[in-house]
């Protein structure tokens, strides 16, 4: 019997994919990332450009996901499209995102919008970004502006994608393959304040909605002599963000790899086994990290339900993608069998897309010809869709 034959998930379990706005839409001209990508001295090797033209081809992408058997669709709303200039709101883009939600519901895909996924309006970023004294209030104005989008039949909303990585980016880190630096303390504090404020505002605007955020969680594994250093290492990198989820309806776990830790002069330091297989991003190919990340998250958040909001592998080998995901799901099911309350699995990503400066890593279940934008489903799309549990409500 195959591993997946024994790896059955319960009725109502969320089952689908995730996709980022800037990484897929293309031509987000008013965003800070666009400005960085297109600057003459840009530190990024490649711009997003047209991306995969997701802004225009979203309906085709939804239909591909639904036809494959997916039940859930996590996607991003781009703040810089909603408020491209300070105080100037695009009603056309509010309607654009509302059409995505309406169509997802028509197709039987439960939409799960993410309100912030790394990118900011350029006007906001250049005037201080998250260090602005009114940063939280300005974001809340955006939350109010997208209320007509969120009123379109949304059960769950993710406030912020990977707030710990937002705080890491604030210290200028870019290559995270060697482990996370300590996130910027000031931006960390803003993320915690922002999440709490957005949660309150969403509950006021949409009383029935279930709120949470998605935290990047590695499966940190300390060597024996590094075990006493473990708590101090993980607390600022992800557990302070997980602890903030204790008042949420759910918490998202975004897990891809493990982080092995050794003791170097009394400090925990991440390291890679030189013989470890690596993915296209330079991360260790270690699918069991999903189960480990979920178990550690549960120890921090207590009885808050967990949704895997991202998990996948950057590889050009689709057979390897299926193998990796099979093992990751097996580790997830084992955690659930041990009593961890997991409510869903959303694969990253639906399509190959822009990975923050480069097109080389391919995470998608669907390949995209970047000259014609033609979509080509990989075997992994139908395979993952075939595993979808029954759609009975939770």
Characterize the structure shown:
- It is a single chain.
- The protein is an alpha/beta fold.
- It has one domain (4-386): TIM Barrel, CATH 3.20.20.
- It has 14 helices and 13 strands.
- The chain has helices spanning 21-25, 32-38, 54-67, 79-82, 91-106, 122-126, 135-145, 147-150, 163-169, 185-205, 230-243, 289-301, 318-337, 379-386, and strands spanning 14-18, 72-76, 110-114, 156-161, 210-216, 219-222, 251-254, 258-264, 267-271, 306-310, 342-348, 366-368, 375-377.
- β12 (366-368) and β13 (375-377) form a beta hairpin.
- α9 (163-169) runs antiparallel to α10 (185-205), α12 (289-301) runs parallel beside α13 (318-337) and α13 packs parallel to α14 (379-386).
- It is globular and about 55 Å long.
Write the layout of secondary structure elements.
Layout: E1 14-18, H1 21-25, H2 32-38, H3 54-67, E2 72-76, H4 79-82, H5 91-106, E3 110-114, H6 122-126, H7 135-145, H8 147-150, E4 156-161, H9 163-169, H10 185-205, E5 210-216, E6 219-222, H11 230-243, E7 251-254, E8 258-264, E9 267-271, H12 289-301, E10 306-310, H13 318-337, E11 342-348, E12 366-368, E13 375-377, H14 379-386
Parallel strand pairs: 1-2, 1-11, 2-3, 4-5, 5-7, 6-8, 7-10, 10-11
Antiparallel strand pairs: 8-9, 12-13
């Amino acid at each position: 019997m195959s591993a997946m034959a024994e790896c059955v998930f319960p009725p109502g379990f969320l089952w689908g994919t995730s996709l980022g706005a800037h990484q897929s839409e293309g031509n987000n001209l008013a965003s800070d990332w666009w400005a960085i990508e297109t600057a003459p001295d840009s530190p990024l090797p490649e711009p997003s450009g047209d991306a995969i033209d997701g802004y225009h081809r979203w309906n085709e992408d939804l239909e591909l996901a639904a036809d494959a058997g997916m039940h859930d669709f996590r996607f991003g709303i781009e703040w810089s499209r909603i408020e491209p200039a300070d105080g100037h709101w695009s009603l056309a883009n509010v309607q654009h995102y509302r059409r995505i939600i309406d169509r997802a519901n028509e197709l039987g895909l439960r939409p799960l919008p993410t309100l912030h996924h790394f990118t900011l309006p350029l006007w906001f970023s250049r005037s201080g970004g998250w260090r602005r004294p009114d940063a939280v209030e300005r974001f809340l104005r955006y939350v109010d502006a997208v209320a007509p989008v969120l009123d379109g039949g949304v059960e769950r909303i993710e406030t912020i994608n990977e707030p710990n990585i937002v705080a890491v980016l604030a210290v200028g880190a870019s290559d995270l393959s060697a482990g996370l630096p300590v996130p910027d303390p000031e931006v960390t504090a803003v993320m915690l304040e922002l999440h709490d404020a957005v949660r309150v505002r969403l509950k006021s605007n949409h009383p029935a909605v279930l709120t949470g955020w998605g935290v990047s969680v590695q499966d940190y594994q300390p060597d024996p002599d590094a075990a006493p250093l473990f708590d101090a290492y993980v607390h600022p990198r992800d557990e302070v963000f997980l602890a903030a989820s204790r008042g949420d309806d759910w918490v998202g776990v975004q897990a891809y790899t493990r982080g092995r830790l050794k003791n170097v002069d009394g400090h925990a330091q991440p390291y890679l086994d030189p013989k470890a297989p690596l993915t296209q991003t330079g991360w260790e190919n270690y699918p069991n990290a999903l189960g480990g990340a979920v178990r550690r998250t549960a120890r921090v958040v207590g009885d808050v339900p967990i949704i895997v909001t991202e998990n996948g592998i950057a590889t050009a080998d689709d057979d390897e993608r299926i193998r990796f995901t099979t093992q990751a799901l097996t580790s997830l099911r084992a955690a659930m069998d041990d009593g961890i309350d997991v409510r869903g699995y959303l694969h990253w990503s639906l399509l190959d897309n822009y990975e923050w400066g480069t097109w080389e890593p391919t995470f998608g279940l669907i390949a995209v010809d970047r000259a014609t934008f033609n979509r080509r489903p990989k075997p992994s799309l139908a395979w993952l869709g075939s595993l979808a549990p029954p759609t009975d409500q939770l």
